[in-house]
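for ur thesis appendix - Pseudouridine synthase. copy paste whatever u need, i formatted it the way the template wanted (i think)
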Amino acid sequence: MTRVILFNKPFNVLSQFTDKGTAGSERETLSSYIDMPQVYAAGRLDRDSEGLLVLTDNGRLQARISDPRNKMTKTYWVQVEGEISDAALEQLRRGVVLKDGKTRPAQARRMAEPAGLWPRNPPVRFRKSVPDGWIELTISEGRNRQVRRMTAAVGFPTLRLIRYRIGDWTLDGLESGRWRDA
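the 3d part is after this line
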């Protein structure tokens, strides 16, 4: 029987069970939260990003989730610097030209700060003179740091990035640092 685990990855945690970084770096990994042999992350979520990570013991399912050719959608809640413009949202919807080529069109909309959002540690830097806003962005690719690069390319750098959904799986009811079987 296939095991599928949904994990709400906290900020500053690697999406792997061991740290193969420099000696003595002692970065926090999934093993600080999940003690389960033979499950592996399906896809990646950068250390400075938070939110939904799917883990499974099924290699085929892992490949289906993480392979961009399968076009499994992923939805992100993105706090950006500035109040995002209609023109920037439209650029995201049409696809953005990055150094590694144009992105597929995304679904993009303004949103209020998500209700019940857990605090980030450390908190996002606050500046009175620079407003921020939230957008919901749904993509079907998985390029390296893609969402951050897309928002920066349209003039609204990412301050906080939370993956809310992968396919039909969501973070609903899942506290930061917690996991459950899907």
